[in-house]
Amino acid sequence: MLKSFGMWRSASLALLAMVLFIGAEPVAAEEAKSGAVQVEQPAEQAEGAGRLIRAETAGTHLCAGCLATIYNEGSKGSITPYGRIELDAIYSSRNNNPLDPGQFNGYATAAGKGNNATATLNPRYSVFGIRADRTDGKHSLTGVVEVDFYGQTDNAGNLPPRLRLAFVKYTNDKTSLTAGMDWTPIMSLHPDLIDFSIMGYGGNLWQRLPQITVRHQFNENIEGLVTVMRFERGLSACCGNTQTRPTTIPSGQVGGGSTNVAPFNDPVQNPYYGGRLAYTGTGNWQGSMLAASVGYRYYRSAPISGSDFQSGRDINSYLFGIEAVHPLTKNLKFSGEVAYGQAMGVEFFRFNQELNLTTGKPVRALVGWGQLSYAPSHSTSTFLVGYGFDNPNKSDMSGSTTAANIQYLSNQRMYATYVRPIWADFYFGAEFQNLWTQWTTMERFSGQQYNMSVWYNF
């Protein structure tokens, strides 16, 4: 038996040696021709847009179950780090961030009821990311991982990184597939103000969401997409929002046949399904863009606080929206969007605004914003002015008393922004915002926020 084992082992080693020889021969032959395996420098590195810190060459992988790079023959790849270092000096006239109080006055959301002025130096909008690219001329892959420091924890100046983006994008000819966490693909136009909220609660629908999105370029002017997306968490910690799901104990166990009520905090049973069709102008319409977006989601809501209705209610969430960009002159451009929908919440940076938190009724809302950007031809500076509004349907909000400090009947914002490059990718910006908010208690307040910022993009 030992002799048979020895023969089997010798045969196995010989077979392994042959496999290794066959797999290595093409690489060795190529090295013999050129002296070494050469990796062509990516265009972005040649132009100084990033550093090549890893390059892979073709090889043979013998591990059938390993998650290794096994398709790289004839392709070129690079990894590019990038980011932004930013410091914001912020003065707030009256608690201008009541809808996210854990962030102090890091950004503006509404005019708060508390008449307390605050000031801070905020480094949280600094960003670090890594981008990986690979292409063979026909197919291409892009992977991005990006973090900032707007986490929920702020203990003794400890600002932990927070995931912003983590996606891979595959492109083949005119079609691309994005899988992972990226910016909201529908209603994807955003204003250019400095404030981190990007007009959240003030007319702009935005978020960064886990998604699967397919885009297709029909021709030079028209692009369409379909997407499945959802926020990575369920209900926010507000106002008794806890879903309950009855479970029956199997017969034969202690208490068999009876029903328990198991609480959980994620009522979303379905993601959002959406689509967007965009037209980009050419010729006399160069620089113009017009897009239409739709989205829909069904889910079972959590019961309202103190209610015996344990199963919640059926919620149909939807939106219809239009985005537009148009140059008015060589130096002046308009951009903006308007949307109407029902139960638009966390997927669009409208936390706790989708339902009446007293009655549980879905809330309809009309939102929108507009911006004028002016860049004088004799200067590198840019001037912005803009206005946005978020108006929930007042009849849907009737009877709302549970979240008197969280839900509003109207939220409006105006901003004026100045941005100037200092040198290279080092910028200075200044911004003024005025916010008007009418809460469900019918109280009205106005608040001002002033930002001065410096940032370095690398």
Question: Care to describe what's here?
Answer:
The chain has 458 residues and is mainly β. It has a single domain, classed as Porin (Beta Barrel), CATH 2.40.160. It is 8% helix and 44% strand. It contains 2 helices and 19 strands. The strands form 2 sheets. It has a 16-stranded antiparallel β-barrel. A two-stranded antiparallel sheet has the order 9-10. The N terminus is likely disordered.
Task: Write a brief caption for the model.
The protein is mainly beta and 458 residues long. It has 2 helices and 19 strands. The chain has one domain: Porin.
Highest-level CATH class: Mainly Beta
Work out the number of β strands: 19
Strand order of the largest sheet: 1-3-4-5-6-7-8-11-12-13-14-15-16-17-18-19
The secondary structure category is mainly beta
The main pleated sheet reads as: 16 strands, antiparallel, barrel
CATH superfamily: Porin
Pattern of helices and strands: HHEEEEEEEEEEEEEEEEEEE
- Total tally of structural domains: 1
Give the fraction of residues assigned to helices: under 10%
Report the portion of residues in β strands: 35-45%
What is the average per-residue confidence, as pLDDT, rounded to a whole number?
81
Rounded to an integer in angstroms, the radius of gyration calculated over CA atoms is 27 Å
User: Distance between termini?
Assistant: 67 Å
CATH architecture: Beta Barrel
CATH topology: Porin
Low-pLDDT segments, ≥5 res:
1-9, 11-70
Shape: globular
Number of helices: 2
